[in-house]
């Protein structure tokens, strides 16, 4: 079975309960579509656990992307004094939930810091899957349809902060599975629930905002919610 969740945002307890609930066998895989860290306090714990598991695959979200940049420059190397331009963005990241990640990361040993940074640096931006003949495109988010159809023109930012057009079917023969946007923003009636439509599956239920952590099995379409 292939399972997909996203935007765990440091909710370590919900993550552990999801892993327990899925009770994955060797042939099963859980994809996490990015934003492991920030806002909730358990992002670093989640990374340490994911690194030990063979059947959990993470893609990169905007928060993981910025955490890598800022942890490397300001928690490992000491660039605090000289880089004013980057420091403004660093301050914004801290305010947007990065402070929790920064503080937990700072408590790690040098070896642990190194492995967390290597892990973040290794995360892919998207992945294509075929399950029982059905095609899926997995990523944190994607850009608008016209641009994605010309994928050569896309930059990594399109897969981190792109503005997805949920009202448009991008591909007739492939479902786009994404996180990043809490489903309540797509349709308030779906707050805390997985949203599906127009060959999209949106799995970010807003777990860090008090909603359940949503997960979908792509083989069976079963939806799993961890309160
Ligand atoms: Mn995001």
Protein model, in words:
The protein is of the alpha/beta class and 227 residues long. Helix content is 35%, strand content 19%. It contains seven helices and ten strands. It has helices at residues 12-22, 43-52, 62-76, 84-106, 110-122, 145-148, 183-186, and strands at 2-5, 29-32, 56-58, 126-131, 134-139, 174-178, 195-197, 200-202, 213-217, 223-226. The strands form two sheets. A five-stranded mixed β-sheet has the order 3-2-1-9-10. It has a five-stranded mixed β-sheet with strand order 4-5-6-8-7, with no helix packed on it. The longest helix has 23 residues, at 84-106. The chain is globular and about 50 Å long. The mean pLDDT is 95. The site of manganese (II) ion has 6 residues, from helix 3.
Topology readout:
Layout: E1 2-5, H1 12-22, E2 29-32, H2 43-52, E3 56-58, H3 62-76, H4 84-106, H5 110-122, E4 126-131, E5 134-139, H6 145-148, E6 174-178, H7 183-186, E7 195-197, E8 200-202, E9 213-217, E10 223-226
Parallel strand pairs: 1-2, 2-3, 5-6, 6-8
Antiparallel strand pairs: 1-9, 4-5, 7-8, 9-10
Helix pairs in contact: 3-4, 3-5
This protein binds manganese (II) ion.
